């Protein structure tokens, strides 16, 4: 893998790390999608963590490996070539700069949107392959993961006793669903005297704005989530499973019963981390508000807004900002 240029400590956010090797958290809820009691466990996981791991999914391994190998080839290309597929404004190839508000991370990435035509030609020419090969690899993977996300959202609705059960999943199934797909590459970050005992941030702390996010990574650690008790915990990597995040929009639709999980990625000094994330969002015109059946007898915590309005304000924010504050009822 080609390593990014040497990090300059002043330019990057860091976290102090008292011990070198991360101690992994063993309490991440594991949902076996083949088991009949999954729906209740999913609800519990969303309430307690806004995060869980999924096993026994039916996303074909060949879709994962195909896309992973294309991504490795792309990220291994010379930087001068990769830059031709950028900048990420917000879609395309991005390097260290995250979003448009000055956030930095030790990461390079590709961002693709379901709503704007993606320039596969640029990527394909860098890889020296037919654009259709790349388009097909992304589409096969995203379609399979989206199907799994919809199944999970339907189980969630059932677990919450909400009718109809497609109340959340229909938003992702809509042909105008505004979803995003992201490939992140975190090159190993060389140890350096300047920041020894500290971890450089690969991707700074944030919540995802959409409804649900589905993450798959290789076997390199780095992902951390923030627990309700204020502690950051390291999630043990598992390349055969998927990790699910509750997004801000689902937090609103459940009137705060589920919390969008704060998460971040720390760099690794030895190994590259590669992750692929599908962010399932609603159509731009969709009105987001707490579902009446989840308000019953309580106050609605959020004002109604369209996904378009939320997105506009999210894209102006810094990564670590609490983006929902603007939409809370006082
Ligand atoms: C976080 C979740 C997704 O990765 C993303 C990110 C987006 C970007 O990288 O362009 C944002 C970030 C994410 C939230 C706040 C804004 C927008 C960077 C940023 C500072 C693609 C998304 O939808 O929101």
UniProtKB/TrEMBL annotation:
Gene3D superfamilies per UniProt: B-lactam Antibiotic, Isopenicillin N Synthase, Chain
Domain of life: Eukaryota
Matching SUPFAM superfamilies: Clavaminate synthase-like (SSF51197)
Ranges for domain Fe2OG dioxygenase: 176-282
Pfam families on file: 2OG-FeII_Oxy, DIOX_N
InterPro entries hit by this protein: DIOX_N, IPNS-like_FE2OG_OXY, IPNS-like_sf, Iron_ascorbate_oxido_reductase, Oxoglu/Fe-dep_dioxygenase_dom
Keyword vocabulary terms for this entry: Iron, Metal-binding, Oxidoreductase, Vitamin C
PANTHER family on file: 2-OXOGLUTARATE (2OG) AND FE(II)-DEPENDENT OXYGENASE SUPERFAMILY PROTEIN-RELATED
Sequence similarity: Belongs to the iron/ascorbate-dependent oxidoreductase family.
Name of the featured protein: Gibberellin 2-beta-dioxygenase 1
């Amino acid at each position: 893998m080609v390593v990014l240029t040497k990090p300059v400590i002043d330019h990057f956010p860091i976290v102090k790390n008292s011990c070198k090797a991360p101690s992994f958290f063993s309490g991440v809820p594991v949902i076996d999608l083949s088991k009949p009691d999954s729906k209740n466990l999913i609800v519990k996981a969303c309430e307690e963590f806004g995060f869980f791991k999924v096993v026994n999914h039916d996303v074909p391994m060949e879709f994962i490996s195909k896309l992973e190998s294309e991504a490795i080839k792309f990220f291994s290309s010379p930087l001068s070539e990769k830059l031709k597929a950028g900048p990420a404004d917000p879609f395309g190839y991005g390097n260290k700069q995250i979003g448009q508000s000055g956030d930095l991370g030790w990461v390079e990435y590709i961002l693709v949107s379901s709503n704007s035509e993606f320039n596969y030609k640029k990527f394909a020419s860098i890889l020296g392959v037919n654009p259709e090969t790349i388009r097909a690899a992304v589409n096969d993977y995203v379609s399979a993961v989206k199907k799994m996300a919809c199944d999970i959202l339907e189980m969630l609705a059932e677990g919450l006793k909400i009718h109809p059960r497609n109340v959340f999943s229909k938003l992702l199934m809509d042909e105008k669903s505004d979803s995003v797909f992201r490939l992140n590459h975190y090159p190993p970050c060389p140890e350096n005297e300047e920041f020894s005992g500290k971890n450089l941030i690969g991707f700074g702390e944030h919540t995802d704005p959409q409804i649900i996010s589905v993450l798959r990574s290789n076997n390199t650690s780095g992902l951390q989530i923030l627990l309700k008790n204020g502690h950051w915990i390291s999630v043990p990597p598992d390349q055969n499973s998927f990790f699910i995040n509750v997004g801000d929009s689902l937090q609103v639709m459940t009137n705060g019963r589920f919390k969008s999980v704060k998460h971040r990625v720390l760099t690794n000094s030895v190994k590259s981390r590669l992750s692929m994330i599908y962010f399932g969002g609603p159509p731009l015109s969709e009105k987001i508000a707490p579902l009446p059946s989840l308000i019953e007898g309580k106050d609605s915590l959020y004002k109604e807004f369209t996904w378009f309005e939320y997105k506009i304000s999210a894209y102006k924010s810094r990564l670590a900002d609490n983006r929902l504050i603007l939409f809370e009822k006082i």
